[in-house]
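The protein record filed here.
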Amino acid sequence: MNVLFISLDSLRRDFLGAYAETPRVTEYDVETPNLDQFADRATVFDTHYAGSLPCMPARREWLTGTKEFLWRPWGPTEPFDRHLAEIARDNGILSQLITDHFHYFQHGSHGYYEDFNGFEFVRGNEYDAWRTAPHTPEEETLDQILNRRSDPPDSVQYLNRTAYARNTSAFSEEMDYFTPQVFSRATEWLQDNAQWEQWFCYIDNFDVHEPFDIPEPYASMYTDEDPDDPELTSWPYYGPVDEGQSHLSDRELAFVRSQFAGSVTMVDEWVGRLFDTMTAESLWDETAVILTSDHGFALGDHGYIGKNEFLPYEVIANTPLFVWHPEIEVERTDALTTAVDLYATLLDALDIDDESYRHSQSLLPLTTGEREHHREYVMHGYWGSTISITDGEYSYHCPPASDSTTECHSTQMLNPHSWFTPREGKPEADAGAFLPYTDSMTWRYPARSWQQHSDERLYDLETDPTQQQNLIDKNTTARDRLRTALSDRLDALGAPESQHERLQY
């Protein structure tokens, strides 16, 4: 069996027709005809959750089967990881990565692409340090993406958003943009490699991640505003929408939502073209297709824009998942599942019997009707911050004490120049076999916990799906049950004792 794995970064469920019953942040429907058609073909997972947040931690779960956030933050794969592409190669299966996700190629997040037989990197998205010309990027783009935290556009010290303006300065038509490039290359790859005996192709598309810089007709599809108006931003800053650098007026927020929606529709169009190629090459009967997202994106929900800086509500953690397999029997399932389960699912779809599933459990039996239930509880969170747990009916969110310590465990994350770990030496680091799932030696060092919120939260997801009413002192039965479940899950996974000590149960 071939396997096609598609991840669409930051894709919200409520922007997809397949999740029409999900409470929506927009008053208009977003056009996703191709994803809706695929949902009709596939098994739709209604209760699927992120695990380790955000971007690269999610990919370590998908590609190595490791629940990461209890032990370490954003970082590289580890020497003791069994990477999915490595296992595929060992079993004679051709593997390919096609992506515009520049985080794979940053210092401090290596190891994710090296085991593929081939990879293609579409350069230039987000903060990719690629082009140094033009000296001063196009003024219109700069007006929509810069602010006081950016270096002057003609400075050699320029960082972040000015780099994006340079990278995209020559864009003039739809094919110049990143999603069309990624899926065009994926289409070509399928056409060129359809005759291999077995293959695994992973398409990791950075859209609909910000910046929401999109061409026509998508830019005007959900707004009457001029998309080139310099007073409107296509790249909001993370944080509360009512104050500080992330402040957005109602007009600005409505525009950001429209550009996010336009990005979703653009992605849908190009996913559809890829699926047309699947049909033309007669690949559906011999190919499993899995499509998901690493997390959502707040668009004013709970008063925030973005992710990371606030509690991982359902809008962030409850992610879309569609699984197609030629032997599929189940149209929809409400079984409780989580991101790390995709590792075992992908191996299962590739017909590989591997014992290195670590924290992962295959979802394919749910699609064939062999099993109706999967997990009783799933956990998700960011390293060093809140740990959340849900049973699909309630969600419980336990913050760390503000002065507590979180331990990092890794073989490779002592480098103070990494983006993803504190930029100072780690004199308190010690080495040992600290991880419950490997005998390998790792470094361990302490770091400060960080609070997304200071109080326990409990929400009834059936009666309050947008999580507005905290029931922590009103439903003590559910609270105590989920507190116990959280503690038990930490113990079952062999999480560090410090994870218990830092939490404010």
Remarks:
- The first helix runs from residue 33 to 41.
